[in-house]
Fold this sequence. Notes:
By secondary structure, this protein is mainly beta. 8% of the residues lie in helices and 32% in strands. It has an eleven-stranded parallel beta sheet with strand order 6-9-11-13-15-18-21-23-25-27-29, with no helix packed on it. It has a six-stranded parallel beta barrel with strand order 14-16-19-22-20-17. β1, α2 (69-75) and β2 (81-84) form a beta-alpha-beta unit. It is globular. 55% of the residues are buried. Mean pLDDT is 91; it is low at 1-39 and 525-534.
Amino acid sequence: MRCYFGFVQRFKLLQSSGLFLALTLACLSLSCTSLATQNDNASATTYYISPTGSNWNNGKSSAAPFKSFEHAFNKMSAGDELVLLDGTYSEAADTGYIGYTDYSTHSGGAHTDQIPSGLSAARPTYVHAQNPGKVTVVGQLFIGRSFRKDSFIKIQGITFEGGGSLFNANYVTIKDCGFHGSFGIGSNDHDQGSDYNLIEDVWVWAAGVRIVAINYRSRFNVWRRVLVRGDGCNRSECRGGGNPNVGITVYDSSNISLQNVMVVDRILAKGDDPYADFAVAQHTPGAYLFGKNEWLGTLSLRAPDTGYYMEPDREGTIDPTIRIVNAIAWDSAELGFNLRRAGTNNFLENLTVRALGGDGVRVAPELDSGILRNVISVNAERYGINSNYVPSYVNVFNAKLGPYRQTTCSVGCYALNPLAGENPPLKYLVRIEPHSFLKAKGFQGADIGANLLYRYGADGARYGETGFNILSTVPLWPWPNEKRIKEEMCQRVQVTRGFCQKQSLTHYIWEYLGHPMPANPYQPVAATEKKNKN
């Protein structure tokens, strides 16, 4: 049995607060909350900050910006705005960064401080770059403490060298930001949870860590259009049984929605313990239940292990447990999709998979309630579909040990090569070609295979809000912020593999199967893909 020992080592930070300090801060927090409620209709003040600024300035114009975050955040009130002018912010530059200071753990410094909470979801404290892509903060973004809940904050347009953590935070929005270093929501350091957060149009890449991105012991969070890449760990804590390396995981959490999340070009260093691009786990039965989690329009490309590895523990899941729709696992070194151990009424629909070292899709014998349909499995090293759920409307081609194990296809069964012919269904990874033999041949006239053409979720919508997880009519491509992504994830760190070799991330994904990107990727299919809304 695989174990996630030490899973959150990089997310649990040592605290040095005494009881008196904690109680004092709690009282102050209550007082501030009361005052914030009374002043909810007050006008927000806009402040400015710059690495070339001065704390003797009033900070109220771009011509007279503050110098340090510590000074700016102490001047700001709940719901105010802080505009970051172009430049690099760090303790070395005497600006500090956006986090906390604890000299006993070598965190922060004299100029570092945390963002004050906002007033409400409609009046967050807003911290953003004046020019997205022109602002870098050197230091880990850190929101909340074990004794302090920070809420109603929006951060936009900033690149963080050092990763980030929504450690104890509700109703935080991270938008158009890059994180060089691991990024996570939640922690095992407290039991308050970090709920109703939104991570939208964000990219995370890291070396020297096991887990690049994590949702831990938290609920009702949305990860929308997030790009993840792991650049290898090469540390002792990443090796050996119980130290699995993962792209992004949902751990001890419920009601989490991953929408158009992609893990691409992830690698393992020598000796790193392999696991998956997308992973789940649940190891605290009765305390932190796992379930009602969904992966919508997601992509695993070239995983060095398994594409999707889902194994929550028994006695710790809620129903329904896992929902995966319009998802791709292509060229994974081991399995494509692997569900095992626990979970009820899992729902898997519209999958495209090529597994180079195992089954295309595996649903273990102990999972006895769920749906598996509208699947393409190509060139699996073992079985095309090895599932206790009876598959339907599937195309399994050229699986080395046979198309099926455990159960066989019940209806809508195909065995043709989706990559060949005059009009192959898989000319491009992200769509099923119009007029091809798998178009509209699935359940209730949907396609067989995945389509990743349109955005899931209304922009800005949090979990449970209107349209938060619908398949919209807004084009997903070109991928947002891809010029910044190419510059930050490739050029700055001198990485040349994978999408870094291509003109853009969009071209890399679209041209992966060897065909040039179409001039208009939406013209042929905009009217027909709607059948795949689930």
